[in-house]
Amino acid sequence: MEQFEIAVIPGDGIGKEVVPAAIRVLEAVADIHGGLGFRWTSFPWSCDYYLKHGVMMPEDGIETLKGFHQIFLGAVGMPRLVPDHVSLWGLLIKIRRELHQSINVRPAKLLRGLTSPLRDPGEFDLVVVRENSEGEYSEIGGRMHRGADEMAMQTAVFTRKATERAMHYAFELASRRRKHVTSATKSNGISHSMPFWDDVFQDVAQAHPEIATSKHHIDALAAFFVMKPQMFDVIVASNLFGDILTDLGGAIMGSIGIAPAANLNVERSYPSMFEPVHGSAPDIAGQGIANPLGQIWTGKMMLDFLGFEEMGTLVLKAMEATLASGVKTPDLGGKATTTEVTDEVIAYLRRRA
Ligand code: NAI
Ligand code: MG
After folding, report:
1. Domain containing residue 237: CATH number
2. How far is CA 298 from CA 72, 157, 259, 293, 332, in A?
3. For labelling alongside 234, which of 130, 211, 262, 293 has CA 20 to 30 A away?
4. Looking at 253, 281, 300, which one is the last position of a domain?
5. Whole-angstrom Cα distance, residue 314 to residue 318?
6. Are residues 83 and 203 in the same domain?
7. Tell me: the pLDDT tens digits for 64-83?
8. Does any domain span residue 231?
9. Which of 49, 50, 137, 270 is catalytic?
10. Is residue 353 pLDDT above 90, yes or no?
11. How far is CA 306 from CA 9, 26, 274, 299, 314, in A?
12. Is the CB–ligand 1 distance for residue 15 below 6 Å?
């Protein structure tokens, strides 16, 4: 029996609704498999916690997390009470950086039973590999003066080490898929960091001659996501470009509520963190209608990362069967609740077991 210690951070808003739902699914998976077990330890770190304690997580929070195999996170954010940069930098970005979760992997796939808002989506099945540790989301910069003279500067940071790491991961992933990597660049407008990005891409591509490559400027690439998403296999992107592209990836699937993400520590020196792409959705929180499929798919990615790909594949099948049966939350045009969708996913798993 392989037993995994998982740190759970439900966070705010619908995070507190979809995380318990996905845990029920993963418990069902463990039960069906027999040789796999989870121990869940929940932490209340969130904007609520911030309002009580003045910090998003305690001083020793990162040290505490290091004792776990993986982290399962919902979403943080309470924009009316806590500024988003405080909640994001105080928890999510802190965990990603300090635990060296240097790569963010986000698939987008046309699931059976889902209607894409695109008229002609084709059978798209792509993965965005986003550099997760530097780039445009840097701490270098500042603000000066007030009033009419006020100014702000923020410096993007691109290192060879982090850029290569993201690109190598993308090529290795592509070698297990359809063997194509697209680079998201903008070397026409951004004249230092993006030509550097292109050079590193060319170097890494040479080390993987069996993989075909292409590169597009991010603006054109965003348009292709809408016009011909079927043309992509793996896409490698900087922190900002990857962030924007993956919300679009969620949107063309049919709802941001189903898009999953994994923040990977590829060296496996510290835990990785699995979280959906969506946020805390304050507009629907507390109503019991949040779509749990993004969080469940995130759980599938955790199963894959732990080496239980067969069970991961089964979870994705259960999600598709649930969608095809018409049990859908309102974001997908249905009437089902979070619990009803979760029950249906679990019922499928049990039938197939
Ligand atoms: P959001 O993703 O929370 O919501 C955008 C829209 O999508 C809303 O209309 C919402 O109802 C809908 N939506 C999102 N997830 C859904 C689900 N599972 N089921 C059904 N509908 C869903 O993004 P927004 O509104 O920009 O941000 C809200 C808060 O969440 C902010 O504080 C933001 O900073 C935070 N946030 C946190 C993230 C994280 O923890 N990883 C990621 C994105 C935003
Ligand atoms: Mg985002």
Report:
1. 3.40.718.10
2. 8, 29, 8, 8, 18
3. 293
4. 253
5. 6
6. no
7. 999 999 999 999 999 999 99
8. yes
9. 137
10. no
11. 19, 13, 12, 11, 15
12. no
- Amino acid at position 23, single letter: I
Residues 136 and 246 reside in one and the same domain: yes
Domain match, 120 and 92 both: no
Query: Active site includes 137?
Result: yes
348 is catalytic: no
Residues 123 and 228 in one domain: yes
Centre of ligand 2 from the C-alpha of residue 339, in Å: 26
Contacts of 151 (CB under 8 A, 6+ apart): 143, 144, 145
Digit-coded pLDDT (tens) for 279-335: 999 999 999 999 999 999 999 999 999 999 999 999 999 999 999 999 999 999 999
The pLDDT of residue 18: 98
Q: 80-89 in b/e burial notation, b at 16+ Cβ within 10 A?
A: eebeeeebbe
Is 111 inside a domain boundary? no
Q: Tell me, in angstroms, the distance from the centre of ligand 2 to residue 333's CA.
A: 23
User: Mind listing the pLDDT tens digit for each residue in 178-211?
Assistant: 999 999 999 999 999 999 999 999 999 999 999 9
For the CA of 75, the nearest atom of ligand 1: 40
Helix (H) or strand (E) holding 335: none
Quickly count: other Cβ atoms within 10 Å of residue 208's Cβ. 18
* Count of the separate structural domains present in the chain: 2
Parallel, antiparallel, or unpaired for β 260-264 and 234-237?
A: unpaired
Clarify whether residues 234 and 296 are in a common domain: no
- pLDDT for the residue numbered 22: 98
Q: Which of 87, 253, 256 to mutate to test the pocket of ligand 1 (most atoms within 8 A of CB)?
A: 256
> What is the interface pTM, i.e. ipTM, of the complex?
0.98
Structure tokens at 150: 């006020």
Domain interval for residue 208: 116-143+151-253
pTM, two decimals, is 0.93
